[in-house]
Structures are given as C-alpha cells and as structure tokens.
Amino acid sequence: MTPDEIESALITAFSRCENEGVPLCYEQKQILMQVLELQKESHLNDFDDNPLKELSQEELELLLNFIKTQQAQNRSWKVLLLNDWLHEQDSGEIHFLRQRYGVQWLNRLQPHHFEALEVKDTFKLKVGDSIEVCNALWEWVQDNGPCQREWFSCTVIDIDENDVEGTQGSCVIRFQNGSEYHISGIYDWNRCNWRWSKSCNA
Hints:
It is a single chain. By secondary structure, the protein is of the alpha+beta class. The chain has 3 domains: 3-47; 51-122, no CATH class; 130-196. Helices cover 42% and strands 14% of the residues. It has 6 helices and 5 strands; from the N terminus they run H-H-H-H-H-H-E-E-E-E-E. The two termini are 23 Å apart. The relative contact order is 0.11. The model has no long low-confidence stretch (mean pLDDT 80).
C-alpha cells in the first residue's frame, strides 16, 4: 500500500471505531497520524528523485518564467500545459517539456522539488494546499533552547494576497485537529515558518 492508501485506511478505521462505540482518543489518533507522516517522508526520501534536476539551467529558467507568468494571470500552469498536450497545441518556449520529458515527468513534479533547488517562491499558496508550519509561529523557539522547531501538517483554507498590514499576504490554515490559525506575512517575514507538504500538487 502507498502512504496515501494507508492514510485513507486509517481514517476509515477511526470512523469505524467511532461507529462501533470504541473510539480512539485524540492523542491515539495523533500518534498514528504522526507515524504515518514519518513513513510518508521516509517513502518520499527513498523514492523521490527531483525531476527539476533533469533540466538544464536554461530549461529550468524557461519553466520558472512560464509558471510565474501563468500565476500572475491566475491560471494553473500545469492544467494549461496538459491541455496543450491533450489538444496537440504548441506550448511555446516550454514545448520542449512535452517533446523531451513527457507527461510522466510532469506528473512527478511537486512544489517541494522547487524548494530543494532553492527556488521557494515559485508558487503562491492556494486554498486547499497542504503545507507544514513551524511552531515558531506561536512560540519562542531557539536552536539550543528548551523549545525546538517542530513541523505540523495543515491545510490552507483562506488567502488574502493584499494584507492590510502592508505585508505580502496572509492566510488562514486549519490543523488536522480542526483548530485554525492566521499567518501574516506569508511571503516575506513569515516565509521561513512554513514549507510545502511533500504530498502537495504543483
């Protein structure tokens, strides 16, 4: 089973336990989900090679420019590219992706691959994106102090690109336990406190 299939089975099991009158407590569910997250990370680290490393520097720059242009127009670059390929239309400067790499390469490409190459700001957050946030958002953490950095999975449920505080956007996230948190400055001073979840699609 893949990690995603295991997660689905776990959620079904939680529901069945509730229906049978023997529900797991919140802490038990969290422990199981944390173990699953560790397995997912291990699985991705073992089998996940970065498709961007297969591109030349010039090809990478062309792709990044294409992505930024499409996002500026509020369009999904991946959907646009796949539609071009489906209808056998020319994709302009990035048509080489279809010719040399194909749809399998495109399907492997995820937002965390861009972070690995230190081009973090390629993608803007969208409602529904899975990210991980650091506890430094709500508590004081130090490299050698009693509170260390921890990462928590969550889902983006609201985005405000024009934050009133003059920062580069804000968002609201929802944790797996249902609690919500507002993050200001998601693209500038708080950018170091969140990262793409490895299961998030580009």
